[in-house]
Amino acid sequence: NNIRLAAITAVEAYIPPPVSFDITEAPGDIFGENVFNKSVMMKRLPKNVFKSVITTIEKGSKLDPAVADAVASAMKDWALEKGATHYAHVFYPLTGLTAEKHDSFLEPASDGSTMAEFQGKTLIQGEPDASSFPNGGLRNTFEARGYTGWDVTSPAYILENPNGNTLCIPTVFVSMTGEALDHKTPMLRSQQAMGKHAERVLKLFGHANPGHIVAFCGPEQEYFLVDRHFFLARPDLLNAGRTLFGTKPPKGQEFDDHYFGAVPERVLGFMMDTERELFKLGIPAKTRHNEVAPGQFEIAPMFERGNIAADHQQLLMTTFKTVAKKHGMECLFHEKPFEGVNGSGKHVNFSFGNDKFGSLLVPGDTPHENAQFLVFCAAVIRAVHLHAGLLRVSVASATNDHRLGANEAPPAIVSIFLGEQLADVFDQIAKGAATSSKGKGTMIIGVDTLPVLPTDPGDRNRTSSFAFTGNRFEFRAPGSMQTVSEPMVVLNTIMADSLDYCATVLEEAVKEGVEFDTAVQHLLTDIITEHGAVVFNGDGYSDTWPIEAESRGLPNLKTTVDALPELITEKSIELFSKYGVFNDREMHSRYEIGLEQYILTIAVEAKLTLEIGSTLVMPAAVRYQTEIATNVTALKGAGLEPDTTLLSMVSEPMSALTTALAALKSALGEHIEGAPEEALFARDTLLPAMAAVRTAADELEAIVADDLWPLPTYQEMLYIL
Ligand code: ADP
Ligand code: MG
User: What tens digit of pLDDT does each residue of 663-719 get?
Assistant: First the structure.
């Protein structure tokens, strides 16, 4: 009756299902099959309606409400043909999860029968009774409703389910007063602001009609797979998403034998099934491979427009969870499911541009384009330097705290890695300012003399939190569990600010009669002189970096509790309201929700630690102790002198465990007034109290007889797939 041993037997007997498709089926056959995409719209919408919708999607122009009825009707017919019985406004509340409220297409007709109905107004707006979502004080209880609104730029899709399909419509989620209660609203607002100022810069470079500029996001998702028999035997994994107990396996990741190794057969079956589901949903899954830790893997879809990438990313996580279950596994998105083993991140590859330009962060090979690139690149440097704290808070969570700053993930300090070539160019620019009076020298970044940059700076620095990788910046601090919206909102907003700054400086200089090339030269030199401190090409894991970073004036916000106040500084509030992304109240609400989520997460973990420590670990230890004690008595009875070393070996950690459990219990019983104080208490009292329980329990794991130990071990969970 040992659940762990039963799980091992069950895992051994388990036969994974075959992949759910015919191997001859080409990805192209099914790509976008369940998406109400451009080609479906072209076929099904009246020409003028189609044109109007496409203009909104591609040019960012205002949605004409008159088209809604026609779109709704076409969407309904398409969905019914695809077997949908219901439709759902899908939204992204501040829990970080995906929410959906389903409604049937059927409505009663006057003669008592029913008919399928779906009108424009139902497409455009919904009213979920969503009063239980965190709102950080944004909604009064008398108006607890939130409203959902159709995001026409993110395509509707069919979510298949053996029990009936659903038409899903991506929406924003706002309060009655229009304040954002979700992650999508600020994403769209910030994207719009960034695009506007990027277009100003492009116009200065002579592109009269640059077109609508959008942000691109390519998220790389890391995750763990664990056999579900083990998962279900670990209450900590089940409830907290991470193990709160467990000693490191004798063989860890030190051999680097898993990274990019052959994908295990069972996992490959899972990957193929997930990719097929993703393809149907129009999600461009591309790269898949083993990650550093045993049991850890990665998927990277092709980059897409920010808000679509964010929606797809959420859908990807849901799909992974569902498909993993079908394959008898649990997919773990937690940033640190296993202590002492590599954690999981979600690198956010960020750039901006459009169909015409591609990424505006491509160095290019003509001097004129390089100058333009350098302005965009300098704008990033300025943005990251001025707002490193905001980038830090955009990835802050109780779960990601276990990863950031640990020796495998980027440090909590946000710095930019430019690569040797680009760093050198900016060094020259910095010096160029001092010698610009010399006129046209080789070092001056005039349009004529600019060095041609390679499109792919060969070297990579994995220890940097924000690295230039050839045609984009890669933000490596985001956690595997979080939505990409949070970092994307900050990136878009701080870029809007920086591009606004660049455009304004250049516009004014030109107005004053300064030659454009010279104005660009000055702008670049000024930016790199003032903000070059954020550029760091060294080893971000080294012990000296935090010291050097401090002398450079870069913030090192180690934990979520340190980072959260960044949301409500005067500077941050001013920035976000200037670009119409958040108002004061929205910022405060996000701060409060951040605190609340942090406190709740740690409270759940602390309670689980107490429960598992008391009801699983301690009883196993007691049984083992009793066995030894019985043996000691038996030996005495047989007239032998018993060796009691073993008895004290198990008894010592047992009394440490008793003490630690009592301390944790009393800490959990304390009442703390005020959310910030409660968060500090969680960090400084609960987490250490949990750690003390774990230390004693892990010591017992190494002593207690294997057949008595109740929790699947790291070795079993990580190596048996
Ligand atoms: P690596 O592991 O070397 O960082 P991956 O191939 O795993 O590279 O992931 C790179 C990610 O960056 C992919 O999602 C890719 O689509 C994305 N990406 C490539 N170019 C851009 C770009 N210009 N803007 C945003 N994302 C990009
Ligand atoms: Mg990467």
Answer: 999 999 999 999 999 999 999 999 999 999 999 999 999 999 999 999 999 999 998
Atom in ligand 1 nearest the alpha carbon of residue 218: 14
| 3-state class (DSSP) for residue 212 | coil
Domain end call among 596, 624, 654: 596
- Report how many domains make up the chain: 3
Instruction: Give yes or no: residues 591 and 603 share one domain.
Output: no
pTM for the full predicted model: 0.92
CATH number at residue 398: 3.30.590.10
Is the distance from CB of 721 to CB of 267 less than 8 angstroms? yes
Q: Ligand 1 center to residue 219 CA distance, Å?
A: 7
Give the distance (Å) from ligand 2 centre to CA of residue 436. 38
Q: Which of 291, 302, 316, 349 to mutate to test the pocket of ligand 1 (most atoms within 8 A of CB)?
A: 349
Please give the Cα distance from 280 to 29 (Å, whole number). 9
Give yes or no: residues 405 and 536 share one domain: yes
Residues with CB under 6 A from ligand 1: 216, 218, 220, 287, 300-303, 349-351, 359, 471-472, 474
**Which residues fall within 8 angstroms of residue 281, CB to CB, at 6 or more apart?**
32, 34, 35, 157, 312, 315, 319
Ligand nearest to the CA of 292: 1
Which atom of ligand 1 lies at the shortest distance from residue 289's CA?
7
Domain boundary at 596, 629, 652, which? 596
Residues surrounding ion ligand 2 at CB below 5 Å: 220, 347
Model pLDDT, residue 713: 95
Residue 358 CA, ligand 1 centroid: distance in Å: 14
pLDDT digits (tens, 9 = 90+) for 245-294: 999 877 766 656 666 567 778 888 999 999 999 999 999 998 888 877 88
* pLDDT per position as a tens digit, 33-63: 999 999 999 999 999 999 999 998 888 788 8
Q: What confidence tens digit (pLDDT) does each residue in 150-176 have?
A: 999 999 999 998 888 999 999 999 887
Cα 506 to ligand 2 centroid, rounded to whole Å:
34
The H helix count followed by the E strand count for the chain is: 25, 18
Tokens, residue 362:
């491509």
